[in-house]
Amino acid sequence: MSAGLCERLHDEAYKLKMDEALLRFHNELPYNISVLYTSDYCYKCLYQPLATVGDRQQNVSVVVQTSFRLTLKIIDINSTLCSLSQTFEEAGHYSLRMRPSGLLNDVTCSFSVDKSPNNAYLPLLVAFLILAIAAVFWASLPCIIRCSCTQRLKNHICCQESQHSMESEDATTEPSMHQNEPKSTRLKSLDTFRGFSLTVMVFVNYGGGGYWFFDHAPWNGLTVADLVMPWFVFAIGTSVVLSFSSMHRKGVSRLQLLRKLSWRTVVLMLIGFCFINYSPRDGLLSWSWLRIPGVLQRLGFTYFVLALMQTFSPRRVIPLKEHHWWNPVQDVVLYWPEWLFITLLEVMWLCITFLLPVPNCPTGYLGAGGIGDNGQYSNCTGGAAAYIDRWLLGDRIYWHPTCKALYHTTQPFDPEGVLGTINSIVMGFFGMQAGKILLFFRELNRSILTRFLVWALILGISAAILSKCTRDEGFIPVNKNLWSLSYVTCMGFMSFVLLGVMFFVMDVKKWWGGQPFIYPGMNSIFVYVGHSLLGFYFPFNWEMRFQDSHWEKLFQSLWGTALWVFIAYLLYRKKFFLKI
To answer: How far apart are CA 263 and CA 311, in angstroms?
Structure first.
């Protein structure tokens, strides 16, 4: 729930829910006052009415949201009496008293806590400790079995076989990179990276325990929910390079590759269009549910473009033994046609975003509209991105964007719209670059990690410059809704770091086999489609009885996520992998 939503109380026994606090105003002034509010997360937003309090000992109670810091302004007819910026905490009871001071016409506003708030983060801490203990136990299990084998000599051989089978299972999860065997293009770290992204995606889609930072940011800025889809797109780009290179080596023709990538694209887009966006309560033949863009539609189209690039890529092998001046950047220079194409795509995004005239809106507008920017551009949500979607797709786009509650917007905006798909392709191309590094420098682990670090630094510095290291004041703010350039470079930085760490831990040092994330990573389509279709049915979801704290909501989110990880594990044991 957003910080902007407030509700007046008529019943003192009102039971507070998650992310709510009770605020009572006590007016001891001889005239009526009005209370206005704005959220500090809402950029340059107009103050909104919260309450009107009568004169002389009149009291009014309201429920305020605790997700973001609020600024309150107490006014009379002519002037501002006082203002207060305060972070309210869940289930807390607060009072704000307005009384005359000793000086003429001066007003004193005093804030107090009547009832201490709950610790809203205690459920999260308990869940973290339980998961940490479970992870330590799982990591220690081989040692426990080994010690048990030592103590029971008669079962020594059996235990050795059991231990050997466990190690074999971990080893067969992904082909290893032995020097004397043909190098496989499939890596544990890549499947684990994909599975980790998907697991977090399922968790946040199931509500993330009701915590605001597990939901998408209202407009600019980043939350946990804003990280996972770019990571998944990055993994798609890496997988395209590894898998298509493997098929090239096996002699698969370009025509066969074109058939494969076209079929997969069509199936992904049809699943997203016909199933994921459909609500059975609308009726079998109802068009009210129709939304043309979507997550799978964007993933499908992004995959299509990346796969086409790899199919027609003119260079298959980097000649490591040849000595040229461009050797330090040969994995870029030798693929200059692809870089030229991506550069043209990004130039097109920049030109459309900042130069396309949008009726009744400033050119180059990147704001949320509504009450933001002092209410000057209330109908300009998303600027050129939203304008293109409405022009191409009409009203068949998303009508409930994340900015709607906080910014009070009235216009539709689709976070999976047409213009943002351009930068989704750019994000996938960064993943392709990671795939080329893994493929062509696979015998040189230090070179792989060094290149990953260099790319992370380049993209991280670019994101810092574009955003000016601020949420709202940058040249191009980090914005998941728009898939802005700074957002893509920031996510590219994180992706190179995360995949690089996993590669070092899993494929170089072999300290971890990727469990449990590797299982959903190897069945990503099944898990994503399954959790989207069945996510609101038992046993993944149920009607909550205790809505006054995060305990049940967090348990429900973790339970649903754990079920899908367990299902993916069972499918792995049965060697069932859904492929399109």
So the answer is: 15
Is position 216 annotated as part of the catalytic site? yes
**Contact between residue 294 and residue 414 where contact means Cβ atoms under 8 Å apart:** no
Q: What dihedral do alpha carbons 411, 412, 413, 414 form, nearest 10°?
A: 180
Residues 222, 382: Cα–Cα separation, whole Å = 17
Q: Is the pLDDT of residue 301 over 50?
A: yes
Quick one: which of 58, 449, 524, 30 has its CA closest to 299?
524
Q: Rounded distance, CA 331 to CA 448, Å? A: 11
Residue 528 predicted with pLDDT over 80: yes
Contact 215, 406 (CB under 8 A): no
Stated as kind and residue range, the H or E segment containing 551 is helix 551-573
Instruction: Name the pairing type of β-strands 93-100 and 20-27.
Output: parallel
From the list 10, 26, 93, 216, the catalytic residue is 216
Res. 499 pLDDT band, cuts 50 70 90: very high
Q: Is 466 exposed, middle or buried (0-12, 13-18, 19+ CB in 10 A)?
A: buried
CA–CA distance, 353 with 419 (Å, rounded to integer):
8
DSSP state at residue 475? S
The residues near 25 (Cβ < 8 Å, ≥ 6 apart) are 35, 51, 53, 59, 60, 61, 62, 95, 96, 97, 98
- Quick check: 433 pLDDT over 90? yes
Per-residue pLDDT, 148: 72
Sequence-separated (6 or more) residues with CB below 8 Å from residue 66 = 3, 19, 20, 21, 87, 88, 89, 90, 92, 117, 120
33: which strand partners? 53
Rounded CA-CA distance 188/27 in Å is 64
d(CA 106, CA 81): 8
> Would you give the DSSP letter of residue 479?
B
Residues 118, 120, 121, 124, CA torsion sign: positive
On the 0-12 / 13-18 / 19+ scale of CB atoms within 10 A, 449 is middle
Q: What is the mean pLDDT of the chain?
A: 84
Per-residue pLDDT at 165: 39
Nearest to 545 by CA among 557, 561, 535, 556: 556
For residue 370, pLDDT beyond 50: yes
Contacts of 563 (CB under 8 A, 6+ apart): 539, 540
Domains recognised in the chain with CATH numbers: 7-115 (2.60.40.2890), 122-165 (no CATH), 185-316+326-502 (no CATH)
Predicted local distance difference test score (pLDDT) of residue 482: 94
